Amino acid sequence: MSQQEDDINKPLPRKSQEDSSSWAKKFVSAMARHAEVKISHDPAPRKRSNTCVGKNDEVPEDGRYTLTYTAYADLPADQHIASVRKLSEALKKHGVRITGVTERPETPEVILFGESEKEGYTLIADTVKPPNTLRLSVTTPCYLPPGAKQQQF
């Protein structure tokens, strides 16, 4: 790694939480299209913002955050694996690295993890409860809100 990559005080990308939320919602909607599923409203989509914590457990007070957007699809469990395979192929074509896949046809259930090294986001597509529920989720990289002064460590 270069010294710049090791610098805990390197400038963070800036984006408002509203812009992050809008991007994440569109991204999860695209995941649903590629998986050929329809997003459900029960359970309703959720978004959660968290404070970024540094590699060495630095806890900032400058407003930096990650945002996770999660939506659910009502889909018979025996179709989850096929649906996530379609999603996986589409993600790979868009430069997403699949970091883990577990398929359990006997259950049936599936778990897929991915990340975009270029853009810094991570994602999950997996079987969750209640029965016949497929979760689609994306988490943004750490962003600093526009106009905030970046805290130094």
Question: What's the SSE blueprint?
Answer:
Elements: H1 3-6, H2 17-35, E1 46-51, E2 65-74, H3 80-93, E3 97-104, E4 109-115, E5 122-128, E6 133-139
Antiparallel strand pairs: 1-2, 2-6, 3-4, 4-5, 5-6
Helix pairs in contact: 2-3
Summarize the structure.
The protein is built from three helices and six strands, in the order ααββαββββ.
Descriptive overview:
The chain is α+β, with helices and mostly antiparallel strands and 153 residues long. It has a single domain (13-139), classed as Beta Polymerase, domain 2 (2-Layer Sandwich). Helices cover 24% and strands 29% of the residues. It is built from 3 helices and 6 strands. The protein has helices at residues 3-6, 17-35, 80-93, and strands at 46-51, 65-74, 97-104, 109-115, 122-128, 133-139. A 6-stranded antiparallel sheet has the order 1-2-6-5-4-3, with helices on one face. Strand 5 and strand 6 (133-139) form a beta hairpin. The protein is elongated. The model has no long low-confidence stretch (mean pLDDT 93).
Strand content is: 25-35%
CATH structural class: Alpha Beta
* CATH fold group: Beta Polymerase, domain 2
User: What is the count of DSSP helices, taking H or I runs of 4+ residues?
Assistant: 3
Mean pLDDT over the residues: 93
Shape: elongated
Number of domains: 1
Poorly predicted tracts of residues? none
- Number of extended strands: 6
Major sheet: order of its strands?
1-2-6-5-4-3
> Helix content range of the residues, please?
10-25%
User: What is the H/E string?
Assistant: HHEEHEEEE
